[in-house]
Amino acid sequence: MSAPTPPTVSLSAPIFAKLTPHPFLLRTLRPSEPGAKPLRTNGRTPAETRPLRANPSSLSHAHGSALVRAGDTTVVCGVRGELLPVDRIPQFRPLPPRSATAAAATGDDGPQTIPDAAAAAGGAAIGRGELKDYDLLVPNIELATGSAPQFLPGVPPTTLAQTLSTRVCSLLHSTRMVDVEDLRVWYKPGGAGGGDSSGDGDVTMTTEGAHDAEGQEEEPERVVAYWVLYIDLLFVSFDGNPFDAAWAAVVAALRDTQLPAARWDPDREILVCSPADKRRLNIRGLPVACSAAVFLEKELSESGADAAEGRHWLLMDPDRSEETLCREVVTVVVDCSDGETRIKSIEKHGGTVIGRELMRGFVGVAEKRWREVKEVLKA
Amino acid sequence: MTVSSAPEVAFGVLPRADGSARYSHAGYTVLASVNGPIEAQRRDEHAYEAHVDVIVRPAAGVGGTRERHLEAILQSSLSQLILIKNFPRCLIQIVLQVESSPENDYVNTKLVQASLNFALMPTLMQTAILALLSAGVPMRATATATAIAVSHDKTVVDPSPRDVETARSVHVLAFTSQDDLLLAESEGDFTVKEWDDIYEAAKKICCRPAPDGASMQLDDDDSSPAAVGPDLRQFLRSTMESKVAADLHWK
């Protein structure tokens, strides 16, 4: 008499994945057949990212916009400029006239000049203070209801949304992507046609006006207003790795942004914009974010120090189901546009797997990602 | 003005909390209370592990997005250290109140600031660890954290707000007591090589090997600790030793 065979329960792959996601992902990453490639449940290899697609100028009413898709994560970014007159800014500190600033970018001893940074980035050092002090960049992230099941309707912004907007804001300031000179609106009393707002690439007429004013030695040129850039991001569909997509959308939208030329009308005492005359922002560099999550073979044990025992996989560009299974995440923002790889930000928390060696290797992966994203955003 | 005071800690400052600590270092003073394991709310309840709830309250005003971000970072780091699997369906609540932060005339101190406060993060981390130790919450390891700012050619350990403002890059690194990198947050402009140097410097501060009793004095004389920053692990160990000694004094 043969031994009774144990009853077997065969489940389809989606049910298996739903019931026990961790063993399911482990099983696909560690295939039992020899020679099979380790794959994730979404069919990608651990180091494979989802192709990024960007569609700039997708919104007609924003000054700049972009729609970025990475797999099923879709984010729309709109940049809208609003004029902020300086008399509405509390504790506004007037700037020295533009000609003086340009002439003595490094030797200037203005109150906001930062010696170290001035040497590094010229006159932009002053700008960093203005951007921060007057809140000229206002990013906001909304995770739309229904973009993923965990986002419920009618709740205040989730921790994720708040964290994301802090990270975007922090990175916008630390990378100094936006040149504050683009956001200043100058006015030169007595100059022909008033002060033109454009920082560089001035039309001939304005240059002549500047010469006239220098000869007359009248009232100095002054800033009358700033453009405030409201950078709004909306996640239409959310499938993991929100920061990479959000940041790519911000970069694409800012590169797409065209602000109308604004000038001060002294007779009517209002700011006047000419929509026909638009100019692009000077965006410095091309920082690209690259994220990965660490999937552990064993979940954290109850006690003892064997937390990092067992194998682990670095899953690039994790999707939503993978993010729920991984605790440790790493995000590196790199910029290789100067030829040399400069790291703009490193964020790693939630685990102890990624040490020094892995981090070095990951920067190499991020460089590869940078080239991919550069191709997409240039198109 | 540079504030480079030695770290100080007082345990059990809040009588009704399960554990509390007031820690001050580099001009920042943070008060932490830990309650737990306590019953979790239904929405926070997890069937297999404890929920770690971190609340950061700024020195003035109510918390904004920046505090939420700090909370998220601390929460994911502390969940790694606390043995959360031992307390299913429970809540361990850590409240961190910033009591004072270094004043600075140069840096604009707006109440609501969106970007991350790097200089504060190590103090928050350290206070949370000390309060968890004071509450007797079982942990896998302890951790030590430090902040380093890199200006043009010099590195500043425990930077002041002014240092952070002028720095080219700012870094926060935390290591567990097993010398693993627990947390790494960096911002600014730097290369892999620079990050490596920072890693080395931070590891020296956070993970200095415990000196043997006899050679301790000699070591201090040799390596001039003022140059490399405080020895945080030694500080953690010695304060806990003195606390345990005081607690067991009645025996």
UniProtKB/TrEMBL annotation, chain A:
It is found in: Cytoplasm; Nucleus, Nucleolus. It holds the Pfam family RNase_PH. Gene3D superfamilies: GHMP Kinase, N-terminal domain. Keywords: Cytoplasm, Exosome, Nucleus, RNA-binding, rRNA processing. Residues 27-63, 90-111, 191-217 are annotated as: Disordered. Residues 48-85, 226-260 form the Exoribonuclease phosphorolytic domain. InterPro entries: ExoRNase_PH_dom1 (IPR001247), ExoRNase_PH_dom2_sf (IPR036345), Exosome_comp_Rrp42_subfam (IPR050590), PNPase/RNase_PH_dom_sf (IPR027408), Ribosomal_Su5_D2-typ_SF (IPR020568). SUPFAM superfamilies: Ribonuclease PH domain 2-like, Ribosomal protein S5 domain 2-like. The keyword RNA-binding applies. Residues 100-110 have a biased composition (Low complexity). Its main location: cytoplasm. The keyword Acetylation does not apply. Belongs to the RNase PH family. This is Ribosomal RNA-processing protein 43.
UniProtKB/TrEMBL annotation, chain B:
The keyword Disulfide bond does not apply. Keywords: Exosome, Nucleus, rRNA processing. This is Exoribonuclease phosphorolytic domain-containing protein. It is found in: Nucleus. It comes from the Eukaryota. InterPro entries: ExoRNase_PH_dom1, ExoRNase_PH_dom2_sf, PNPase/RNase_PH_dom_sf, Ribosomal_Su5_D2-typ_SF, RNase_PH. Residues 8-138 form the Exoribonuclease phosphorolytic domain. Belongs to the RNase PH family.
